[in-house]
Specification:
Layout lengths: L8 E5 L3 H13 L3 E5 L2 H10 L4 E5 L7 H11 L4 E6 L4 H9 L4 E4 L4 H28 L4 H5 L3 H8 L3 E6 L4 E4 L1 H6 L19 H12 L9 E7 L3 E11 L5 E10 L1 H42 L3 H32 L7 E3 L1 H18 L3 E4 L10 E3 L1 H17 L6 E9 L2 E8 L33 H11 L3 E7 L3 E9 L5
Parallel strand pairs: 1-2, 1-3, 3-4, 4-5, 12-14
Antiparallel strand pairs: 6-7, 6-10, 8-9, 9-10, 11-13, 14-15, 15-17, 16-17
């Protein structure tokens, strides 16, 4: 090892003693530690046992010649800087020596200043390289240090109830707490240092951890989530983000595992309860609705008082609202149970949406609205294989929503486009619009934006949650762009690769 980062050890290999003595005198005055050898074999032996930074090497020597010595030196340590000394400094020898990795030449006979100049240049390069390596080590302190550090932070991590796992930039585990081992039923004595795939069997999660560790998507601040299950019906939510170094380089990832099994069970019980209650309520409510319709029909023939007719009409309207609510709740239960999207068949999306627009035009005309399907693109729209009931529910709800939240005389346009291997369907209205502070909430169950313009609009608050659930179930995407007082645009993206 070097005693100092600026200390330079030099080896002189030359069969002429006068050259060796002269070079030693020059180099020692420069502060170098100097060794010498009279032949190539002795020089290589010194290099095997001692660390040397610079070698002054004669090309023409008895035994092994300088070119062969140079080749062996580079095999032993490519960082050793070799300066060739020769009285035969021809172009051919220079080219051959440079091919083998020589740093520079000193032609014989030489002046002391020439030796000092070349060696000093080599020394500066070595010192610069050492400082660079030192800075690099300090800058790239690996997360492996975290795995061995007995600190208060490590104690806190080990005491956390949720599983914690940390990887380096290569996706190798450098830290994991006992909770992680317990959650996945791994050996408590399992050591770190292996690829993430040796600890987690879910391929999707492993790929995500590798991407986060290497910063493949270039979003260091983003928190990623991933749900997965393990045998014995246990469910987990993984939350992870990249770990950055001092210069924003990617050092690895930190992942937290949260056991969501109890929440899943509770959610399932809730869905089963809602489905059962809704199913039991639907039949009697439908009967009441039909009987009210019958009574109203008879009252119309007998010309009953306007007040009585109004009360029964309101009762019939509210009953219909309850039936709609029950239908929406049952739809949500089916979505949560994963029982939607089972009847797949080939569909022309433009024909399906066209039929929905035609069906809902009657409702739009009652509000003196214009509802139209815009001109289709010139490029043929590919057929998709999907569940028509799911698509009808998605676009039926979106168009109905646009009708409800657009005042009389408004316009609703439905547009279909194809680009980037996606089919994009837009539902555009010039209605009341949605304030930006409500955009994140409109897909929550039972949430309805209420203000002076919308307070009299009836609805269950389940239409958009149903749309979001169905779009997610078919691996699509929904986006909203809205300006209060100007209208809203709902965009549904259907990746063709998911419907081939």
């Amino acid at each position: 090892m070097q005693n100092s980062e600026h200390e330079i050890r030099v080896l002189i290999v030359d069969d002429e003693q006068s050259i060796r003595i002269g070079c030693q005198r020059i180099l020692k005055r420069m502060g170098c530690i100097v060794k010498d050898a009279a032949c190539g074999e002795d020089g290589l032996e010194i290099l095997k046992n001692e660390e040397v930074s610079i070698v002054l090497l004669d090309l023409k020597m008895p035994g092994i010649d300088g070119i062969e010595v140079l080749r062996r030196i580079k095999q032993m340590d490519e960082n050793v800087m070799v300066i060739i000394m020769t009285g035969f400094a021809t172009v051919e020898t220079a080219i051959e020596a440079m091919k083998q990795g020589a740093y520079d030449f000193i032609p014989k006979p030489f002046e002391p200043d020439h030796v000092r100049l070349v060696v000093d240049r080599a020394r500066e390069k070595i010192i610069l390289r050492r400082e660079t390596e030192k800075l690099e080590k300090e800058r790239r302190r690996t997360l492996l240090d975290l795995g061995t550090e007995k600190s208060r932070i490590r104690s806190i991590i080990e005491a956390l109830p949720n599983g914690v796992i940390v990887t380096n930039a290569e996706g190798k585990v450098v830290l994991m707490n006992p909770a992680f081992l317990r959650q996945l039923k791994l050996d408590p004595e399992l050591k770190t240092g292996e690829s993430i795939k040796n600890y987690i069997k879910d391929e999707g999660l492993c790929d995500l951890v590798m991407n986060i560790s290497k910063g493949i998507d270039g979003s260091p601040e983003k928190i990623y989530t991933y749900e997965f299950s393990v045998p014995e019906n246990k469910y987990f939510l993984a939350r992870g983000r990249s770990v950055l170094g001092e210069y924003n380089e990617y050092l690895g990832a930190v992942i937290i595992l949260i056991n969501t099994t109890a929440l899943k069970v509770l959610d399932q019980l809730k869905s089963e309860f809602v489905a059962k209650v809704s199913h039991e309520l639907r039949s009697p409510l439908s009967t009441i609705h039909e009987q009210l319709a019958l009574v109203l029909g008879e009252m119309a023939q007998e010309e009953q008082s306007e007040k009585e007719t109004h009360l029964l009409s309101r009762a019939k309207e509210k009953t219909q609202g309850l039936i709609s609510l029950i239908g929406d709740l049952l739809d949500l239960s089916r979505i949560e149970a994963g029982s939607t999207g089972q009847e797949f068949r080939e569909i022309k999306i433009e024909e399906l949406i066209g039929s929905i627009v035609d069906f809902l035009n009657t409702r739009a005309k009652k509000k003196k609205q214009i509802l139209i399907l815009d001109k289709l693109p010139d490029k043929p729209i590919p057929k998709i294989t999907a569940d028509p009931m799911a698509l009808e529910s998605i676009f039926g709800n979106l168009i109905t929503n646009a009708i409800n939240y657009t005042p009389e005389g408004g316009e609703i346009h439905v547009k279909i486009e194809v680009y980037d291997n996606n089919i994009c369907i837009y539902v555009i209205d010039n209605g009341f619009g949605i304030d930006s502070k409500y955009k994140e909430k409109i897909f929550d169950r039972f949430y309805r934006v209420k203000n002076e313009k919308t307070r009299y609009i009836t609805g269950t608050g389940l239409g958009l949650p149903i749309v979001k659930g169905l779009v997610d179930s078919i691996k699509g995407k929904i986006e909203v762009d809205s300006t209060p007082g100007e209208g809203s645009t709902f965009k549904v993206i259907l990746p063709l690769e998911n419907f081939s």
